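Consortium newsletter contribution from the modelling node. Members have asked for a concrete example of what our holo predictions look like. Here is one, prepared for the S-adenosylmethionine complex that several groups have been discussing at recent meetings.
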Amino acid sequence: PSYLDACEVVSLKDRRLWWRSCSEGHPVCSPAEPAELSPARACYRAARGKPPALGISWLSGNRGSGYYTRRGGVGESGDFITSPEISQVFGELIGIWYISEWMAMGKPSTFQLVELGPGRGTLTEDILRVFQQLASVLSKCDVSVHLVEVSPKLSEIQAVMLTGGKVQPSPEDESAYMKGISKTGIPIFWYRDIQDVPPGYSFYLAHEFFDALPIHKFQRTEKGWREVLVDIDPEVPDQLRFVLSPSRTPATQNFIQPEETRDHVEVCPEAGVIVQRLASRIEKDGGAALVADYGHDGTKTDTFRGFRNHKLHDVLSAPGTADLTADVDFSYLRKMARGKTATLGPIKQREFLKNMGIDLRLQVLLQNSGDTATREQLLHSYDMLMNPEKMGDCFNFFALLPHQRLAHPDKKDKPESKSPLPPVAGFNELLLK
Ligand SMILES: C[S@@+](CC[C@H](N)C(=O)[O-])C[C@H]1O[C@@H](n2cnc3c(N)ncnc32)[C@H](O)[C@@H]1O
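And here is the predicted structure:
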C-alpha cells in the first residue's frame, strides 16, 4: 500500500506517531513544530501522505494525489491544458500510430490499449474514434482499453466521456476497480497501478503522465551531492522554503549517476520503475509504448514549477492547489529500458506530428468545415501544437519497442534473406496509406 492509502485509514493519533517517527533530522517534521496548523502539516495534508523524509518529492507528488483529487486540473477551465484538449487531430494521429505499429508487427489477433494517466479521457476517445473509422482494418482484432488512473474524480469524468457513464465497480477480487463498454463497443477497465493490468500484447500510452510524478532534486556542493529538501521558513510564519540536506541522503547515494556532469539534477525514480515495468512487459508479451511529454535528454537542471489558472505559481505556496510538474529526463527513461527494449527519440512534437501527416489532416478538416470560426479554431490549434515557440519544440515523443521491431534478430548471419523492416511512423514519415 502507498502512503496515500495509509494516510486515509490511520487515526490522527497514529498519524502523529508516524509524523514523529520520520522526523529524524529532517527540518519539515521537526517535533518542535506545532503540528495542527503549521504550513508543513497543511502541506503534508495537501500532498496527502507523501513522507516528508523524501523531501521535495512529496510536494511534487501532489499532482497524482491531493491536487488531482481536489481540483482535477486538466482542460480550459482547469490549471493547464494538454494537446488532446487543444485539438482532436493530436489523438487521431496517435491512433494512427498504433494501427501502423500493429500492422508492422504482423497484425496480432488481439491487443490492449493501456493509457497511463488519461486525464479527462479525451485522448483515448480520439484514438477510439480512429479505431472505429478503421474498423474494417481491425475487424479480426480483439481490442480492449485499460486505463491506469489514481484520481477518483478524473476516473468518473473518463467514464462519462468514454462510456456515457455506463460503468460498474468491479468485484473486490478483480484487479480492475471499475469496468464498462465504450460508446464504440470496446471493453474498458480502470486500475490504480500498471501492475494490475493483465499481461498480454499491449500498446501503452503515457501523455503528460511522467511529468506529474514526484521528483528528487539534488545539488552538487563542495562537500559532495546534497538533496534539496523543504523546510519551514523560521523568519516567515506559514511559509515553506528550500534547504539543502546537511549530509548525504539515501537518495543522493542511490539516484546520482557516477558520470553526472551537471551541478543541479532532478530524478524521478517512480518514472524509472514504471519504464522498467513497461519494458519488461513489452519484452515478454510484445507491443510498444509511446511516451509524449515535455522534457530533455539529460541536459536540463532546474525545471520544477507550478501552474495555477494557466499561470506560473510558486511551488511552495498553497500546496495542493496548483499543478506541480518537472520536465521528463528521457535519457533516464532510456537507461531504465536498456537491455529489455529498444528506444526511439526523444523527437520534437512538431517533427513527430509532421511525420504522422498533420498537414494533410489539417487540409482535409479545413476543406470539410463550412464556417470561418471552425476554420480559425483549426488553424489556431495547429499553431499551438506545432509552433516551436509554443508546444512544437518543448514537447517530445519517445517510444519503447521490441528489439526485433528495429532489427531482425539474425540479420548479421543472413542480411540478404530478410525483407527490410517498415520504418516506425512518427520517428520517420508515415507510409500507411
Ligand atoms: C497531466 S494529466 C495528463 C492527462 C492526459 N494524459 C492528457 O494529456 O490530457 C496527468 C494524469 O495522470 C494521473 N496520475 C498522476 N499520477 C498518477 C499515478 N501515480 N498513477 C496513475 N495516474 C496518475 C492524473 O490523475 C491525470 O489523469
